[in-house]
Write a structure and sequence with these properties.
Blueprint (H helix, E strand, L loop, with lengths): L4 H6 L9 H11 L56 E11 L2 E10 L5 E4 L3 E6 L4 E3 L4 E3 L6 E4 L4 E9 L6 H4 L1 E3 L2 E5 L7 E4 L3 E3 L6 E4 L2 E2 L7
Parallel strand pairs: 6-13
Antiparallel strand pairs: 1-2, 2-8, 3-7, 4-5, 4-10, 8-13, 8-14, 9-12, 10-11
Length: 223
């Protein structure tokens, strides 16, 4: 599998990459925010121990933790949705660009029966434990089609997360806070997983997270 962001967007038809200039314009128009990220590959299915936050400006952490993203209803004839407990969730293939980073959230069916994923994960940056959300939850990127993904045992689907750098904004606009984890709800589930991630989020309501719909993982043929 190729690791650069451009090729991974080819696995999610219609998806778009933001250039550094595009990110800057988006930040002005949508008051979007920006955050850098750190090592991201783990597989916890329960809350990990707290990561130590490095020095940062005074925290401006919102009190509630984000609820799961709104439910999207799959076709009635589809297999049951993949429960959080049936999935192994990882962060894979981080790819930085001028102004932010793309990371794939990989959902692997760890059960012995087929299940389905449909729609968007719920994603937010948090500090803790105890966990407290930093800023706004991820906004849906609708440039990728929403399709029903059926996962056989051991199969994987992915959703592409964009984290824009919080440092692109002034402290007074963003109130940067270093996170300890990403909180992730699989599509249409109310149980979450926490994966270590030390990106800076914005304590103020500045949009820096964008999430695409879950897509079937396609493996490239050997060269």
């Amino acid at each position: 599998m190729k690791s650069d962001a451009g090729n991974r967007w080819k696995r999610t038809p219609g998806a778009r990459l933001l250039t550094a200039a595009g990110v800057a314009l988006a930040c002005v128009a949508a008051v979007a925010g920006c955050g850098s990220s750190s090592p991201t590959t783990t597989t916890p299915t329960s809350s990990p121990s707290a990561a130590t936050s490095s020095s940062s400006p005074a925290p401006a952490v919102s009190t509630p933790t984000a609820a799961p993203s709104p439910t999207m209803t799959p076709p009635a004839t589809a297999p049951a949705g993949c429960a959080t407990s049936a999935l192994t969730v990882k962060l894979e293939n981080p790819s930085g660009y001028a102004g932010g980073e793309y990371i794939e959230i990989a959902f692997t069916n760890a059960s012995s029966a087929a299940c389905t994923l449909y729609g968007y994960p719920g994603v937010s940056l948090v500090t803790g434990p105890p966990y407290a959300q930093v800023g706004l939850a991820a906004e849906r990127d609708t440039s990728s089609p929403v399709t029903l993904v059926t996962l056989a045992p051991g199969a994987t689907a992915t959703a592409l997360l964009q984290i824009v750098e919080a440092q692109n904004f002034s402290s007074s606009t963003c109130s940067p806070v270093q996170a300890t984890n990403l909180q992730i709800y699989p599509p249409n589930q109310t149980a979450q997983v926490y994966l270590p991630n030390t990106s800076y989020g914005c304590g103020d309501p500045v949009q820096i997270l964008f999430i695409g719909a879950v897509q079937a993982q396609t493996l490239e043929s050997p060269q």
